[in-house]
Amino acid sequence: MAKDIIHDAVKNALIKDGWTITADPFRIQYEEFDLSADLSAERSLAAEKGSRKIVVEIKSFVGRSFVRELQQAMGQYSMYLGFMKMLDLEHKLFMAVSTLAYKRYFGQRAVKALLQQSQIPLLVVNIEQEEIVKWIS
């Protein structure tokens, strides 16, 4: 499957932020399904003597229809999350978007309401600087 156009910038931003990429792509296998989220990463938590694990699905939202892309992204997210729960994975699933997409679309009340109701955490990345701008849980 083709990588999203912002894939490498998101990956580099995570690395810059102290994350170790553990899979690219991250396979989610459950029964007959074999899916691939974009990547997984891990970060040590010294204070807790453990680590935090995340899976990231990357979306640029540069197509002709934002609504259509959002429908597809939310469906993917829902499937990945469902299978990850059934597999009892300890990773937290995030959707990564660029600052441009975030500013253009994610301030809309309907989009905010959908994401809040669906409890989809966002990772907002400055693509040019390859830096994480914000985590929204």
Description:
This protein is α/β, with parallel strands linked by helices. It contains 4 helices and 8 strands. The strands form 2 sheets. A 6-stranded mixed beta sheet has the order 1-4-5-6-7-8, sandwiched between helices. It has a two-stranded antiparallel ribbon with strand order 2-3. It is globular and about 40 Å long. The two termini are 27 Å apart.
Offer a concise description of the structure.
Helix content is 35%, strand content 35%. It is of the alpha/beta class.
List the helices and strands and how they pair.
Elements: H1 7-16, E1 20-23, E2 26-30, E3 33-37, E4 39-45, E5 50-58, H2 66-86, E6 92-98, H3 99-105, H4 109-118, E7 122-126, E8 131-136
Parallel strand pairs: 5-6, 6-7
Antiparallel strand pairs: 1-4, 2-3, 4-5, 7-8
Biggest β-sheet description: 6 strands, mixed
Mean pLDDT: 95
- Rg over CA atoms, rounded to whole Å, is 15 Å
* Beta-strand percent range: 35-45%
> Helix coverage percent of residues?
25-40%
How many helices? The count is: 4
List keywords for this structure.
137 residues, alpha/beta, 4 helices, globular
